[in-house]
């Protein structure tokens, strides 16, 4: 049986996954939309939703400390605190995933993930 066996489909080492998540989340907040594979988008979507929810409820100093775990660029974290924090009005669903078809090179499912204000 498969009880509580949550596999992401990203079969790499833990350190590589951590770096991948940090880079994808930073790029998503920097450009507000990115194109990636479906498994990567579905993996970072709950992390981004949880991050935005906790940022909304904390003051700026605590939010900057929390963003340090996920964001690799300082100017992106400033952008989140100064500009984006006020735009997130809804309670959930801060990301949208749109399917784009299959990637030309290897046929992977290709999607566009974007922030939902």
Could you list some keywords that capture this structure?
117 residues; alpha+beta; 50s Ribosomal Protein L17, Chain: A; 3-stranded antiparallel sheet; 49% helix; 17% strand
> What oligomeric assembly is this protein in?
single chain
Secondary-structure-based class equals alpha+beta
Rg over CA atoms, rounded to whole Å, is: 15 Å
Shape from CA axes?
A: globular
Number of helices: 4
Structure description:
It is a single chain. The chain has 117 residues and is α+β, with helices and mostly antiparallel strands. The chain has a single domain (14-115), classed as Ribosomal protein L17 (50s Ribosomal Protein L17, Chain: A), CATH 3.90.1030.10. It has helices at 14-31, 38-57, 60-67, 74-84, and strands at 33-37, 95-102, 109-115. The protein is globular and about 40 Å long. The relative contact order is 0.19.
Secondary structure layout:
Blueprint: H1 14-31, E1 33-37, H2 38-57, H3 60-67, H4 74-84, E2 95-102, E3 109-115
Antiparallel strand pairs: 1-3, 2-3
Helix pairs in contact: 2-3
Q: In a nutshell, what does this entry contain?
A:
The chain is of the alpha+beta class and 117 residues long.
């Amino acid at each position: 049986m498969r009880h509580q066996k949550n596999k992401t489909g990203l079969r790499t080492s833990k350190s590589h996954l951590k770096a991948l998540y940090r880079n994808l989340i930073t790029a998503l907040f920097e450009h507000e939309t990115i194109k990636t594979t479906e498994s990567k988008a579905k993996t970072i979507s709950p992390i981004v939703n949880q991050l935005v929810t906790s940022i909304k409820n904390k003051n700026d100093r605590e939010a900057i400390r929390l963003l340090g775990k996920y964001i690799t660029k300082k100017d992106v974290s400033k952008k989140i605190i100064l500009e984006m924090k006020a735009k997130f009005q809804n309670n959930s669903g801060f990301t949208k995933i749109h399917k784009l078809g299959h990637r030309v090179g290897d046929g992977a499912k290709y999607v566009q993930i974007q922030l939902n204000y």
